From TrEMBL:
Source species, domain of life: Bacteria
The protein's name: Uncharacterized protein
Taxonomic lineage from the root: Bacteria, Pseudomonadati, Planctomycetota, Planctomycetia, Pirellulales
């Protein structure tokens, strides 16, 4: 049997839910867990399969949502204790883009290594970008999440800086301030966001960036009932989220 046939028959044998869990854990681990052995060994014996773990890992190197072969990428390592997501927040990445591989967890203690190689599904990353875009248009409170901060840090990793925060700062410095719109409510947001960008990128000690971030946050809610330029608004939200991540970590 080829890899596709093995995966198909194994999925039929153990069921979709356990198959997905098996594949995901195989991506992450360097060996089979006990519960995986209990699933795999009877199946392997029945089909006369003799795969060492590296070969089995290669067989499972697919996205269980999109079916894509996983590619390899270098991404930033995010240190620190992650915020425990709610069930709703956890359901989104697990359902829509489980193999996006935007960043690697580094644990609580900050180490010298800043990047790591991960496997990722190209379709998951496309789905993640689409989801991010939808979140920006829907609710800034939802958009201001750890998931999107990791996304921004991952995109910033092309600068190969010494830490994810430095990566994000370099990335943020390359942005241009949003253009000024005709809408007065949106113009106020653009003015504050532009000042935040100037203060952060020049490290101006005279400006209380945290206070500016706090002041602009409720202003986004005022645009919900207005006919505003969505592209400029999305640009402002990106600025807000990036600056907030840089200032507050």
């Amino acid at each position: 049997m080829n890899h596709a046939e093995i995966r198909s028959r194994f999925r039929d044998a153990v069921g979709p839910a356990r198959y997905c869990k098996f594949v995901v854990e195989t991506h992450r681990s360097g060996r089979l867990r006990y519960w995986q052995e209990q699933l795999w060994e009877p199946f392997a014996a029945e089909h006369s399969l003799h795969l060492e773990f590296p070969a089995l890992k290669d067989c499972c190197a697919v996205c269980h949502v999109h079916g894509c072969r996983l590619d390899t990428d270098t991404v930033p390592i995010i240190y620190g204790t992650p915020i425990t997501p709610t069930d709703a927040e956890l359901n989104v990445p697990q359902t829509l883009f489980p193999c996006a591989g935007l960043a690697a967890g580094g644990g609580c203690c900050v180490g010298e290594q800043t990047t790591a190689d991960v496997q990722f599904c190209p379709d998951c990353r496309t789905a993640h970008e689409r989801w991010v875009s939808q979140v920006f248009k829907r609710d800034i409170a939802t958009a201001d999440s750890q998931e999107i901060r990791l996304y921004l840090a991952a995109k910033a990793s092309k600068f190969n800086a010494e830490s994810p925060t430095d990566c994000l700062l370099r990335y943020y410095k390359s942005w241009k301030p949003p253009r000024s719109p005709a809408d007065s409510a949106l113009a106020d947001i653009v003015a504050v966001v532009t000042e935040i960008h100037r203060a952060v990128t020049t490290n101006d000690p005279r400006v209380d960036v945290a206070a500016l971030l706090s002041s602009v946050y409720p202003m986004f809610a005022l645009t919900a009932s207005c006919d505003t330029d969505s592209m400029i608004l999305d640009h402002c939200k990106m600025h807000y989220i990036a600056a907030n991540a840089i200032v507050h970590g």
